Structures are given as structure tokens and as C-alpha cells.
Amino acid sequence: MVITHSTQADGHAQPIVIEDQDSQDADEPPIPCAPPSRGISVKTDNTIAIDDDSRARVESGERNDGSITSANSWDGTASGAHTFDATIVATYLEVDPQNGLSNTEATKRLERDGPNKLDGAGTVSIGEVLLRQVSNSLTIVLVIAMALSYGTLDFIEGAVITAVILLNIILGFIQDFRAERTMQSLLSLAAPSSHVIRHKMTEIIKAETLVVGDIVKLSTGVVVPADLRLLESMNLEIEEALLTGESLPASKNAEAVLNTGHDASIGDRINMAYSGTTVTRGRGTGIVVATGMKTQVGKVASLLRGDKPEAKDSNPLMRYLKKLGKGIKNILGLVGTPMQVKLSKFAILLFSLAVLLAIIVFSANKWNLDNEVVLYGICVAVAVIPESLIAVTTITIAAGVKAMAQGNVVIRRMAALEAIGGVTNICSDKTGTLTQGKMVAHKLWTPDLGILSIKDVTNILDPNDGSLEVGNAPFNINQTSASHNLTMLKPILDAVALCNFASVSRTSPVAQCSSEKHPSTGEWAAVGDPTEIALQVLAMRFNNGKDDLLKGGTLTSEMEHQFDSSLKRMSVAYKSQTTGDVEVYAKGASEAIIPILDLSEKEEAALIPIIEGLASEGLRVLCIASKRIAPENERNLLDRRFMESNLKLQGLVGLYDPPRVETFDAVMKCNDAGIAVHMLTGDHLNTATAIAQKVGILKSDQQTAHSVMRAQDFDRLSDAEIDTMSSLPVVLARCSPTTKVRMVDALRRRKAFCVMTGDGVNDAPALKRAHVGIAMGINGTDVAKDAADMVLTDDNFASIVKAVEEGRRLFDNIQKFLLHLLISNIAQVILLLIALAFRDTNGNSVFPLSPLEILWVNMITSSFLALGLGMEEAQADIMIRQPRDLNVGVFTWELICDKMLYGSWAGILCLVSFVIVVYGAGNGNLGTNCNEEWNESCDVVFRARATVFGVLSILLLVTAWEVKHFSRSLFNLDPARFKGRFSNFKALTYNRFLLWAVVAGFLITFPVIYIPVVNTTVFKHKAIGWEWGVVFGCLICYVAFVEAWKAIKRRFRVWSGMGQTLSIREEV
């Protein structure tokens, strides 16, 4: 991967992309450059030309070492790649391992072979989306109502209900399909990526764009993206349980060539790496020999698609019952996220209520089921169903997913979208999340020289940028007087350069494989971990970079023990070809290096204050050490304990990683929102404390004895001892993956709802254990991303806070449109049940609202209003509330009380308007057979229905504005955001979709009431005049009631009224 960094004044050019890592230090080096294979020359398009001698050797099967492979020539199939030397494979595929394919050639091969993905993976199933539209109890009620309408020969009503069902299914399908496609496209942002060499540069590309012949780099935590013939390996181990069933990782050896033919088992192919397996240790590079369905994992594609194999029951009846149960769950919508399941259960409850209400209607008419009674039953059943609930919910959640993506958060599991708004604790990494992840070596200390400072750095990748000071005096490496100091610095500079797998170089029009130093102009490029990049830049300041040291070929790498998150150190060994001596270099955390140093107690006691002094400045302190081994002891290098013992201290390096500018404000937002932020870092205690204070996590006036702890001290405590602590640590230093898991468990025992961030392989258990696991998109390993519920595409703590805010907004909006829809349904049910008492001359109940009026209100008027509420922006007070109780869910007591009060009052007002028209001006004339069609006796009833229709429509339009906030007055909705004389007008109109939904809903009411024939034949009402006075009188009564209830909530600080004031003057 290439890091470009232009020379800017602030030194913060983007992007800075880092290779995957296990923890704070790099554990996976890039593969060093090697000379091209003999007989191979690179053409201008990065394919290779083969001389006649090499071609003859390839065709005959001769390897570079003179041996012969088991076949005369490779046929190009992945199944036989393990039987051939890697050079022969590269030659056959026409690619140079050092330069990779050209972009042009890669594009051609991608067009030829297709994307590197399994057939059907990542696609949207049209059948499944369509099934979701019909498999819910709300649609079932409409289907039953449609059947009854046709059964009673009411073809107009049946046709309209049919149209409503089809409209609901079509609109729902379109929106759901779009949402699914959006989810797939967003998930691709968090899809596995690959480090490949193309056109002589290391790049990051999506795994699905890999082609046969690509050169892929592997490191710990990476999921192998395609089938590879390994070219190089260093301590490489890969977990292949997916293919072999073996629980232990398999050791790999790129140099091996198997002569067992194509019949060798997958587990025995130690020179191959297969798609879908995971690198657990070491590093390597390989050439792609198969992609997509041609890989080994293509044969078990169902495993990669997430279909877990289920144990088959031997009892056929049990298998049938399980299958039947699964089918019923799908039909009833009882699969999906917790909120989706809860809403489906609510729909089932409404379905049961609809059946019960129909039974009540039939019972009230003594089960004399003539057409009039059946129609009334249909009317009541339709009234209780919020037909647009599923569609509005789907659209709102899809909009939430998209908004999260725009805020640099990719949702991998939908349940996390619903849950993130309720978090109470956030456990965050420091490096790259709270800080910028742009390391610069700020201070260097050696026993002989003291402290050397690097100041005024504006470009962290430029070795010539900034100035040097020793003891507050300028230090110029080009002056003759500096030679003595440079001699004293040489050992530590050698160590930081060689015990390092990063590379830093000046980019040029045609980048070379070597890291030859260029003049200090143009852009710099780097590959590796930020810590190691900073150390490499430090060495290059003194013309002592890794490439400078290895250029002559006198040093060769003999052994490396990679960074271990539990040991917190790494070491390498280089052999001098001149003397035969082996030099061991090690670096790591101070507590990891000091025990393996050859130091006296007095020397150690003198060293500790220096380390703590550097750490207290917010610097990350690394100990650098080395030792020389005689040639006869070289065989002992395999023993890590031997290699990392009796080392000589060379010095300390203090690295500075500045906090992100936005972190402090984000932490303050969390504090205001009642969310506790914990820093879990691998840094020194003093370093972690200093950074925590700078970003606002740690406040001196709120510290307790356990606010800051070392992970070792925390891990020594039993669960019972942790539970007796008054509060959990705010800062945990020198944190290990085990510490993170224990922290999550401790929070769970305290009934907290926690977020955990992570990037390494060992973070996966903590990410799984947390309520919401968030992986880093830039620095995170594929294993961490797979374990997480969300992925941050910018690795920024502020993005987590934005996700919390978006989660709260989404929850609020779902509650708003639920309340709005249910108010309408409750009003209709109350109206129709009480209206059973209104009987015509034949003794039949006269419904005050026809079934089609109800469908119009529910599908046309309410649906668009509900959609507008789903698009509401976050309220001004959204991040100053305490986290909601996730155990309660969306149906809070406030929502339940509000819907019952508002719905009942709206139903009563509708009933009053019906009574006024029928029994006031109409003298109680309810006509004959007015439920079926218009006749002269139905004039009063039809006018009364139109009045009720107008009342209900207008009340719902105003309700859409009233429920924008559950406790603030309609006349003072958002004083924090909108101020001035017309502040309330702005608060009502800023949501343009909702505004036009209200306007359209108001205007369309008049054609429905006044268009001849349509009004009497379809809707069973007729034009009205003076009755509009009744409509607006009911509107005033309704608004007065709602405002009075909101004032009570504010006055007594109930639910959302907590923190609100009673008077408008006080609020303004």
C-alpha cells in the first residue's frame, strides 16, 4: 500500500494508509525486493519476456536449482501449482514477481476472467425481497378484506383494496430492493482488500478485482483473497480449518515443491495459500493462480455465504416440523433484526385485534351476516391496520444506513444500527482513533549523548524536514563537529532502521523497487505501520536508513521474531558477510525490553525516571536494544528466549501522535449524552494519562483511585473485586486483548451497553463480546472487520459519536411515525366501535367512515406524512439526553400513553362531528342501506361521513407537526436551532418532504370530497358546506388538548418533558 504525503504547512496531507497490524507496533513487514529471476526480462507493460534457455527449462520442467518437477510442464490450473517451482508459475503467467502486472494487463485479465467472487455472493434476491412484501400479517388482513368485499359483490371496494395491496407490494418492493442494493454497495466499502504489487508499486485494491497473475502480500490477520502459489514466506502460518478441518494453523514454506502430483491433500500443500483462509502468523507473498469459483473455496461456497451447516435430524417428522416452523416465521416476518421482529410481532397483535373487532361487530349484530354487517366488519378490521408501517420502516432504516455511510460508518449487521443509539459506554483505542495516527519521532535518548529533539516538523515523511537540537543547542549533521555525536548515535540508528519493516522513499515518475533516496523535492511515499515509518524517517535523517545499510549487500537477514501483542516486543537478526558475526536488534515497550537487558539495578533505577519523563509529555516510548552473537551461536537464533536475552540498551525513542482536532468535542458530546468514554491502549501509563487529559476523557477533579490503571493490575483482579469497584477504569494502559474482553464482561455485569473498537486479530473476541463491535477500516485486519458489527472507514473516534447520534435520530423518527400511524388507527377503531350504536331503519349499524375512506387516510394521507417524519433531522437536544433503555424497545411508556390519549381524543372528536351533523342538522336520519350505496335517504349520513373524513384528515396533518417533538409545544418546536420572529415557521418548514406532504394532504382532501360520482360511489360521502366549521372547531379542540398534555409533561418533567420548560418565554 502506498502512502502519499505532499509537503504541506500543517503536515496533514491525506490519505495516510497503513498496513494491517496486530497491535500498536508493526508485526508484518513488506516483502523485500529481490533481483529478477535469471532468463527473465521485464517488458514495458510489466509482463515478462523469457529467453530461449529459460523457455526450454520451463517447458521441460527444470527448476532453478536444476531439479525436475513431477510433470513436463504446468497446465495453468491451480490444482497443480504446488508441484512446480514458483518461478515457473510466474513465467507461465507472464508476470515478474518484483514488479507485478501493469494496470492495463490487470484490466484485460479482469475482463477475461471476471471478478474474484463467488457466484451469487453479494447479490440481492428478488424473490426474497418480494416474499417480504407479502409475508406479513398486515397484508394478510387486507387480503381477507379484499376477499370479503368480492364475496359480498362489492366489486368497487374489492378492486380498490386490490389496488391498495398491489400498490403496497410494488412500492414496498421497490424501496426494499433499493435498500438491499444500497446495503450491498455499502458493505463493499468494508469488503476485504488486498495488498498487491502492480506497476512496480504496492497498492490496496478490493479483493474482488484481483486477477490471475497478481502478486499479493500477506500479513497476520489477513484473509487470503484468492488461491496463491507462495513466492516467499517468513514464519508463515495459515488457519485452513475452512477447507481441511484442522484446528491448528498450517506452517507454510514457499521454497517447497511437492512431487506428489495433483492428488496431494489441501493440508499437505505447504507452498499454497487458499482463498478464505486466515493468516495467523508471519508474512509472505504469493502469485494468484485462481480466482472466484475456480478457487478451492468455490467448491464450498455455501460456507462463505454464511450458510452454517445444520445437523440433520434423523426423524423425518422433526425435519418437516422444523422446516414448517421456519416457513411460518418467514411468512409472519419473525426473522430479521430485533426491531423488525418486534414490529412483526406488533403486526400479529394488530391482526389478532382486527379479528377480535370483526367478531365484536358480528356479535353486536347477532351473527346475522348480511352484506351490511360484513362490510362493517371489514371496515373495522381495515381501520386497525397501519397499512404503510412496513414500507415506511424499511425506507427509514435504509435512509439511516445511507446517512451512517456518509458519516464514515459502514453497517455490517443491521441490528447494530438499531442498538448504537442506546450505548452507555464506549471503549476506544488511542492510536489512530483518538489520535491522528501520524507518528513522528519527537525525542531520542542515548546513555552517552542524552536527549536529542526533533522540532518544527511539518511533513512527517520527509527526513530533511524540521530541525535537530541536543541540549537546547542546534545540531547539524553536516558539520565536522557533529561527527563524534553521530558515532554515538550510530548503534541506535542501526537498530531502528534494521528492526523495522517500513519503507520510506521519494516518489518518482517510474518508481523503482529499491528505496534509493531522492532529492528533497516532490512527494514522499511510505509503506508500513505509522510507528515504524516514524522510526525509519528518524534513521534516514542521519543518512542511516535501512536501504542505505543493506545497499552493499554485506548484511543479510537471518531471523526475525515478529511483534507479539502479549510480549509487546519484536527482534531481528542480521549477519555480516564480512565478519560472520550476527547482530540482534530489538525494540518494544519499556516493560517488555527492560527485563531482557543486561542492566544492573542501579542502571535500571536511573532509566525509569527518564522513561516516565518522556511518557508524561504524551510521548510513546520505545526501548531500543541490541547484542552481537558469535557465528557458532547462530543456530540458537530459532530460540526466541536466547535471541531476546542479555541485550545492551542503545537508547529510547519518544514518538508523538497528536490527538485529532475533533476528538475533544466528540468526547464532550459523549459526556453530555450520558456516555462514558474509556481509553484502552497499549501505551505507557503516563503517555495514556497525558493524552486522555488532552482529549477530555480524564478530568483531574473527577479522578478516583481506579480511574487510571495498568492492564496487569486490572487483570489480576477477580470478577468479584472488579464488581466492587465504584467505577470502572477510564484509562487502561498496556492493554492486552484479554483485558479488553474482561472490560466488556465487567460492563455487561453492570448492565451497561458498550461499544468496543479494535483493529487486530486478537481484538476479535472483544468485538464479538461487545454489544456493538466497531473495527477500523484503514488499520483493521480482515479478521477484526469480520467480527465487528460496524466498520469505521476513517478510523476516527468522532465518527463513532456521529453514529450514536444517527442511531438516536433513527430511533426518534421511528417512534414519531409509529405514534402518528397508531393515533390514526386508534381514532378509527374508537369511532367505529362506538358507532355500532348508530342503526338505520333496518336495524343495521351505519359506519361513520367507509372502508375506502379509511384506506385513503391510512395509505395516502398518513403514509407520506410518516415518511416525512422518518426523514426528520436530529433534534437539538438529542445528545444531551441520557441513553435510552434498550430493554424497553421502541414502544416506550411515553409512546403508549401519547398514542392512547391523542388517538382516543381524535376518535371522540370524529364521533362528535358525526353526531353534530346527523343529530343536529339531520334530525337523526340515518337512512336505509347507506353502507352499500347512495340513495335519497342517505343525504345526511353521506354529509356526516364527509365531515368525519375531513376532521380525521386535518387532525392527522396537524399531528404530523405535533409529534416532531413529544413534549415541546407546536408553537415553539426548536428554539435552540431557530430564533427570531419567524422561528416557529422555520421549524415547521425546514423538513421540505414533510411540509409538502402536509400541503398535498390538505389540498387532496377537497377533490376526494367534491368530485361528483367518485365521492358518492367510491367513498360513500358527498360534498359539504357549513360542516367545515365543525372540522376546524374539532381542530382547535384537538390542538388545545395535545398542547395541554405536553405542558403537563414539561411541568412535571415526565419522560421527554424532563429538562424542558413550561413557558415559551423561558424556552426562548
UniProtKB/TrEMBL annotation:
It is a multi-pass membrane protein. SUPFAM superfamilies: Calcium ATPase, transduction domain A (SSF81653), Calcium ATPase, transmembrane domain M (SSF81665), HAD-like (SSF56784), Metal cation-transporting ATPase, ATP-binding domain N (SSF81660). Keywords: ATP-binding, Cell membrane, Ion transport, Magnesium, Membrane, Metal-binding, Nucleotide-binding, Potassium, Potassium transport, Sodium, Sodium transport, Translocase, Transmembrane, Transmembrane helix, Transport. GO terms for biological process: calcium ion transport; export from cell; potassium ion transport. The chain crosses the membrane at residues 134-153, 159-177, 346-367, 373-404, 817-838, 854-871, 901-922, 942-961, 993-1013, 1025-1045. Its cofactor is Mg(2+). Its main location: membrane. Residues 21-72 are annotated as: Disordered. It comes from the Eukaryota. Residues 80-154 form the Cation-transporting P-type ATPase N-terminal domain. Residues 52-65 have a biased composition (Basic and acidic residues). Belongs to the cation transport ATPase (P-type) (TC 3.A.3) family. Type IID subfamily. This is Sodium/potassium exporting P-type ATPase 1. The lineage of its organism: Eukaryota, Fungi, Dikarya, Ascomycota, Pezizomycotina.
